[in-house]
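Case 369 in the screening queue. Each case pairs one protein sequence with one candidate compound; here the compound is coproporphyrinogen III. For every case the pipeline is the same: read the inputs, emit a complex structure as tokens, and attach any notable structural observations.

Predict complex for case 369.
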Amino acid sequence: MDSSKGNDTLVFPPLKNDLLLRAARGEKVERVPVWAMRQAGRYLPEFKAVRADNEFFKVCRTPELACEVTLQPLRRFDLDGSIIFSDILVVPQALGMTVEMIPGKGPSFPEPLVNPEDMEKLDFKCDVTKSLSYVYEAITLTRIKIDGQCPLLGFAGAPWTLMGYMIEGGGSKTFSKVKKWLYCYPEASHKLLQLLADTIVDHLVAQICAGAQLVQLFESNAGILGPQLFYKFSLPYIRYISKKVKENLTSKGVEHVPMIIFAKDAHYALEELSESNYEVVSLDWTIKPKNARSRCGENVTLQGNLDPCALYASKEEIASIAKELVESFGTRRWIANLGHGMYPDHDPEHLGAFIDAIHKYSEQPSDEL
Ligand SMILES: Cc1c2[nH]c(c1CCC(=O)O)Cc1[nH]c(c(CCC(=O)O)c1C)Cc1[nH]c(c(CCC(=O)O)c1C)Cc1[nH]c(c(C)c1CCC(=O)O)C2
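Case 369 output:
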């Protein structure tokens, strides 16, 4: 069958480029797939034009706008993957918290959680299929509009990263408020992390049922925890999520999709992450590809790990860095990406140079496939 089925009722246009799915599953590819975290964003003038007239969460909540900005980078670049435009902070919103996106500052929670009693304000019975239905509608619409050009990724923030925003009320240098919870209120912390994990499972399953062909879990603030806290308060929930997502899909009779874990700066846990039931482990730029491969073994696909700042280099230098990455990662079980997201002052053409160079240097002679 050439049409891909997201669930029993949805039939989407056939997929013309499945490199990303094949690389995630460890199959041979004729060239290495490439996409970029935050590929839809403020470095694109066409994104800024949409944002000029629409508040950030309005774009998230309006399926036509979310679909439009998701497709913008695909019109410019030869991308092998597309990530739905949304935000990790829609989950705290679904739990009843107010989140604002303040220009020049980033996300802000006017009423963050201060004490464990504040958790009573959260909606423990929240039904994401209702409160986040706009995300799933955006995914289904985008899956249709993308017309099989490449696979569509869904995503969520991991529990520890979301807990950080909910308690700090925004970004932070030290994350001392949320870390204080881990030391002073470990039981309440686990209760909050479990609530988040269960909500994230439902959110990822609903995205897959709506048409997401891979999903990525962002533990962007893993680096703030040392190994001890990571093994206690992050890794168990990362593992719970992959297990439950897969179980829930099986019980619904929906095909499994590859799952990607990005635990930024958690080098110490690479072995454990690669044994956490995720098909892909995404790396930040501070680790050598060969080192990561020998620690993760041969059974997972690696993703990454260009330093986003390398996109400030000349196009020639970007091409030579891309060539080095291809030589270090090899062409099997690798998805080329950045080690974190695009920055607003990146030149779009420099991302284009990276994408084209990865394709050029990873092209396989057809008789070797
Ligand atoms: C931590 C985090 C957030 N959101 C996200 C993460 C995890 C990834 C990471 O570590 O960067 C994930 C995210 N946020 C966004 C996407 C969309 C898809 C894509 O990657 O293209 C994704 C995958 C859109 C966005 N989310 C946000 C923007 C920019 C805001 C704008 O348009 O005004 C975009 C395009 C806002 C946002 N949202 C968040 C922050 C910290 C910010 C402010 C960042 C800034 O201002 O530079 C929370």
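Case 369 observations:
- The first strand starts at residue 82 and ends at 83.
- The domain at 19-301 is CATH 3.20.20.210 (TIM Barrel).
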